[in-house]
Write a structure and sequence with these properties.
By secondary structure, the chain is of the alpha/beta class. It has 12 helices and 6 strands. Helix 8 crosses helix 9.
């Protein structure tokens, strides 16, 4: 997920003037004994907003200044706008509360009942619920409306924490563990289905993209005798199928840089549809390694030079 500080689409900082939500200065209290809290509708005294848990609090118009604006100067605050009648809210809120508990105090979840706090809802432009936004350093980081899969909610939380300067340790993803286990045991169909499911829920998940590319790679070399394939590639340096298969074998043998060099050299010697076929094959091998691999970065530069 992109850093909220540099993504204008859904993570726009300062989109709302939060200073408008600061309450007016309190009038001097009259002399005499302190007044009791005003009674609620049923006649019982109103209690101050209570903490639902160590990392989950109730946010109201009265405590927004202290619990959100001031707190956000040191700890990011995510706001969950909800209502009793909202069924989707009942799906998203437990996910947010779970992640807040797992956060160990790195961030705080503030729950805002839109029916009880219409001024907050209006000021933050709530047009539908559930809606999640964040406040970091006293500034708004826009979020999302509606129910998202837990993995995408985690990504949003991580992005907010990074915006607040909080170091984020990637959480283990049981979905990836299951997909990787299927891949390691050779169940390519199950692994493929699992990786595709992750990508449907979390587009551009680099680990899942890499796993799916590995599935395709393993399928290409099934039943192949490595020594024979490498000998054919040696004898036919311009044969697309032979060179691509040799590159696959090199990647699986821990010789990825050599595989990249092989295909970049082939790109230089080809043109038209053949060149595009080799280029796409090379990109699939880059995906196996992932975008942060230094060898991939170097090979991408070499590919660019070969193409242009």
């Amino acid at each position: 997920m992109s850093d909220p500080r540099s993504t204008p689409s859904i993570f726009t900082r300062g989109a709302v003037d939060l200073s408008a939500l600061r309450p007016a200065p309190a009038r001097p209290a009259p002399s005499g004994p302190p007044a009791a809290a005003p009674p609620a509708a049923d006649g019982a005294p109103q209690a101050p907003p209570a903490a639902i848990g160590a990392a989950v609090i109730e946010v109201t118009e009265a405590n927004f200044q202290t619990e959100v604006l001031e707190r956000s100067l040191s700890t990011p605050v995510l706001l969950d706008f909800w209502a009793d009648w909202c069924e989707p809210c009942k799906q998203l809120s437990p996910v947010l509360e779970k992640l807040a508990a797992e956060g160990g105090g790195a961030w705080v979840l503030g729950k805002v009942d839109v029916d009880a706090n219409p001024r907050l809802a209006q000021a933050l432009r709530v047009q539908g619920i559930p809606m999640v936004v964040a406040v970091v350093g006293g500034q708004l980081v826009e979020g999302f409306t509606g129910v998202l899969p837990e993995a995408q909610v985690r990504q949003y939380v991580d992005a907010v924490l990074k915006a607040g300067g909080v170091a984020v340790t990637p959480a283990e993803d049981p979905r990836l563990d299951a997909a990787d286990d299927a891949l390691m045991t050779g169940d390519l169909d199950e692994a493929e289905a699992a990786y595709k499911k992750i990508l449907a829920e979390t587009p551009q998940d680099h680990a899942a993209e890499s796993g799916l590319a590995q599935v395709e790679l393993y399928r290409r070399i099934q039943g192949v005798d490595a020594a024979t394939a490498m000998a054919k590639a040696e004898a036919d340096p311009d044969g697309l199928a032979a060179q691509q298969l040799a590159a696959d074998i090199e990647v699986l043998s821990g010789q990825a840089p050599e595989a990249y060099q092989r295909l970049v050299a082939l790109v230089k010697r080809t043109s038209g549809d053949e060149r595009d076929e080799v280029r796409k094959h090379l990109l699939s091998l880059f995906t196996v390694a992932g975008p942060d691999d230094p060898a991939v970065s170097e090979a991408r530069r070499a590919l660019a030079r070969a193409l242009f």
